[in-house]
Design a protein that fits this description.
- By secondary structure, the protein is mainly alpha-helical.
- Helix content is 48%, strand content 5%.
- It has a two-stranded antiparallel sheet with strand order 1-2.
- Strand 1 and strand 2 form a beta hairpin.
- Helix 2 crosses helix 3, helix 2 packs across helix 4 and helix 2 packs across helix 5.
- The longest helix has 16 residues.
Amino acid sequence: MRGACAQCLQGHGDNGPTRISARADYAVRAVVELAVRQGEGPVKAEAVATAQDIPHKFLEGILGDLRRGGVVDSRRGGGGGYRLAREAAEITVADVIRAVDGPIVSVRGERPTGLAYSGTAEPLLPPWIALRDKVRRILEGVTIADLAAGALPEPVERPAAEPAAGENP
């Protein structure tokens, strides 16, 4: 996530060890809202902002990023608005996050696979790569159609339902 992941992975700051940015959260919520309203034609940004309680000006920037990222299309004019650029089943949560925040997991702004450590820090690289792999598998395994239907895949639903999943150590 742009700028934040190095802090997140290192555990610095007030955000705790892992963080989903407000941009990513709002973007996923907006895209799910568009998916649910897919049969209505283009949806105005104001309608999405109101339905999801997202600040309108902030949402406009997010929708621009989503358009540039190929997640949504837009049409200007009286009958204009936003719609999904492809079927909801073809858009993953990872696609949405990448469109607004860049790489899913980064360390000091770099993908873990691009890092090199030496000496006593050398064993640190495999955990960063494994973390990236796990997060990618989860976010690439959940589609916007899954969220719109309220039916998450079992590999996400099962661990999320475990009582300890929401606890902080």
